[in-house]
Write a structure and sequence with these properties.
Layout (H helix, E strand, L loop, with lengths): L3 E6 L5 E4 L3 E6 L7 E7 L9 E6 L7 E5 L33 E4 L11 E4 L7 E2 L18 E8 L5 E7 L10 E9 L2 E9 L7 E4 L4 E2 L3 E9 L2 E8 L11 E3 L13 E2 L2 E6 L2 E6 L5 E9 L5 H9 L7 E12 L3 E8 L2 H5 L1 E2 L19 E3 L2 E5 L1 H15 L9 E4 L7 E5 L2 E2 H12 L2 E4 L4 E5 L3 E9 L4 E8 L6 E6 L6 E6 L1 H7 L3 E6 L5 H15 L3 E8 L10 E7 L4 E14 L3 E6 L9 H4 L7 E3 L6
Helix pairs in contact: 4-6
């Protein structure tokens, strides 16, 4: 069983699996560039600039060809880039790089996916229409010509709808080539139905479970083809046994079920232009949690059971980036990779980037506008989205990484005036401080504005299984007396905010910050209030070491840390994660960091938030 995999993409776009002896991959949120060091046999052909992707899951990744986790994104995390095409959102004319799905946070406390993000298909949307991608041998990436396995987590809702389709049929149960997975409703109950037809003139094959699943039920669907038999399962999340006797079986399922049409997540195609899907029907009305597609083989039972029993996985692709250094000897090569997110830490925003033209994906609410670097009456999400849209024009040749932004908080603080100049990371941190939210960057470039400290304290890390270390108190980022130098009043002056209770309790921690971008006194007020609220206390840092690869965590998850020997029972937020292979070890750091512990990549950026500590600022 291979739960980790390294993929290489060369300058021609060819993707191949790379033999790997060892790996160390680190994710550090916005504090440092994601990075990886990989040890491979010396015979491996690799060059600086090649794209490397590190894949890790709870299940065998050997045959993984599609991974859609809907954690604020429908970008493929299998490494093969079978991504949604751009659509125009029917409700927002300027939203021209929409993937066809809406996203939200699961708020049902009893749900397996509580406080995880999930996708829905809007009534006026078309679902996610996926690009047609091929392997180096010209076979489709989503290849249903032989054995395959598809495992989906969904929640029932709405009316009869399609979860996944790659087919010529224009209704979910039509008599045409391809594969369709649907949830069919009768009364208030549901069944899982699968429709297959080969491309050599065979008859339509179908199989369905009984109508046994109620509305609002979270289900794990599995469709497995082995030889000429297709097995279908629909397993409720509360079940103790996942994949025992199939709920339905299709026999004599022979031939090649590949359709040349684009695949669709969350709907069935209804019209085409050649192989391009133009419109869709049978839209799925429930919640989409994850879809994994395996081609050329099936999962072993242990892997399938792991997908069913494990906690939800927020990311399968742990790192994607470019090779920047290679060290070679007779036996092996050591490959150094920097994540694509370095564009955020390294980019200096000027009027050369934010010129007078409008980019695809740049749009504003009524009354907001941009004139080169100057924004008027804009929301923070609109400012960041505009910068990303302009940067994507520069990144257009990179099919692996395209910056996009999703706001899952609905925050709408209007900034009357803002000059977006300087380091991009600095700009993002300033805007997130104004709205008091967190900013998450996925390996593929999907950025999400989400609530700070996502409460997953039902995830408990206890001593015994885990090695837990309290790394002491960290006051390097503590501030209870803040001076902000800004041009918000028309002249360069300062405003002050302080917390007297904190000063009386822990002493004076004064900082001064230069915010030359701000020309809006209201926005400065939000900034200083939120900064003091976040920084007035001395924080504790913890390190958790797990003797296995953990896949159910990401930055900004607030977890519970328990060490009965040391009488420790605390909630703390994940700031960085490091995975080590083949040691099968995960190191999690929570709480705040020392400034000088930041990665050198971050230090070499244009500035670190223009932040200066001055203990003597009050004289």
């Amino acid at each position: 069983m291979t739960k980790v995999k390294l993929l290489k993409e060369d300058s021609s776009g060819n993707i191949s699996v790379v033999d790997m002896n060892a790996a160390e991959v680190s994710r550090d949120g916005l504090r440092a560039v994601d990075s990886g060091v990989f040890t491979c046999p010396s015979r491996i052909s690799i060059s600086q600039g090649n794209v490397i992707k590190f894949i890790s899951d709870v299940a065998d990744t050997k045959h993984l060809r599609g991974a859609y986790l809907f954690h604020g994104s429908c970008l493929d995390e299998s490494g093969y880039n079978v991504d949604p095409i751009n659509q125009t959102n029917p409700s927002v004319s300027g939203f021209t790089n929409w993937d066809g799905l809406n996203y939200e946070t699961n708020s049902t406390s009893s749900s397996k996916f509580y406080n995880f993000h999930q996708a829905t298909v809007p009534s006026n949307g078309g679902g996610a229409i996926l690009e047609n991608k091929t392997m180096p041998n010209s076979d489709p990436v989503h290849d249903f010509s032989s054995d395959f396995d598809i495992i989906c987590w969904v929640t029932t809702g709405g009316s009869t709808g399609v979860v996944y389709s790659k087919t010529n049929r224009t209704s979910f149960n039509g008599n045409d080539i391809g594969i369709t997975i649907a949830l069919v409703k009768s009364g208030s109950n549901w069944r899982v139905s699968v429709y297959l037809k080969n491309n050599s003139g065979g008859s339509l094959k179908s199989g369905s479970t009984s109508y046994q699943y109620p509305d609002g039920q979270t289900l794990c669907l599995r469709i497995q083809r082995k030889g000429s038999t297709v097995n279908v399962w629909g397993v409720q999340s509360s079940n103790d046994i996942a994949f025992g006797t199939p709920d339905a079986t299709i026999t004599n399922a022979t031939g090649n079920f590949n359709s040349t049409k684009q695949a669709v997540i969350g709907a069935n195609p209804s019209t085409f232009s050649g192989d391009t899907v133009l419109t869709t029907t049978n839209k799925f009305g429930g919640k989409l949690h994850s879809i994994r597609i395996y081609c050329g083989g099936t999962l072993d039972i242990d892997s399938a059971n792991q997908i069913f029993a494990s906690r939800p996985i927020p990311l399968i692709m742990k790192l994607a980036g470019n090779v920047w250094k290679i060290e070679s000897n007779l036996d092996q090569k050591k490959i150094y990779v920097k994540g694509f997110g370095k564009v955020i830490t390294d980019t200096l925003i000027t009027d050369e980037i934010l010129d007078g033209s409008t980019a695809t994906g740049e749009y504003y609410h009524t009354g907001a506008s941009r004139s080169t670097v100057s924004f008027t009456s804009a929301y923070p999400v609109e400012i960041i989205r505009a910068i990303f849209a302009k940067l994507n024009e520069e990144l257009s040749s990179n099919g692996n990484y395209k910056l996009s932004l999703l706001d899952l908080t609905g925050v709408s603080n209007t900034i009357n005036s803002y000059n977006a100049v300087g380091n991009l990371l600095e700009i993002i941190n300033q805007l997130m401080m104004i709205v008091n939210k967190s900013f998450y960057v996925s390996p593929r470039g999907r950025c999400i504005i989400e609530n700070k400290d996502i409460d997953l304290t039902y995830i408990k890390f206890k001593n015994g299984t885990y090695q837990i270390t309290a790394d002491g108190f960290d006051d390097s980022n503590t501030a209870n007396d803040l001076y902000i130098f800004t041009g918000a009043t028309g002249n360069f002056s300062f405003v002050r905010e302080y917390d007297q209770t904190s000063i009386d309790t822990i002493g004076l921690y004064a900082k001064r910050i230069i915010l030359s971008q701000f020309t809006d006194a209201t926005a400065v007020g939000y900034f200083k209030n939120n900064f003091i609220s976040q920084s007035k206390n001395i924080n504790t840092r913890y390190t958790i070491e797990a003797p296995f690869m953990l896949d159910f965590i990401k930055e900004n998850f607030q977890i519970k840390i328990i060490n009965s020997i040391k009488s420790l029972d605390a909630s703390s937020t994940i700031k960085s994660i490091t995975w080590k292979y083949p040691e099968a070890k995960t190191i999690i750091e929570t709480g705040d960091y020392l400034l000088d512990a930041f990665d050198l990549e971050r230090v070499s950026a244009d500035t670190i938030n223009n932040l200066f500590t001055d203990k003597q600022v009050n004289g």
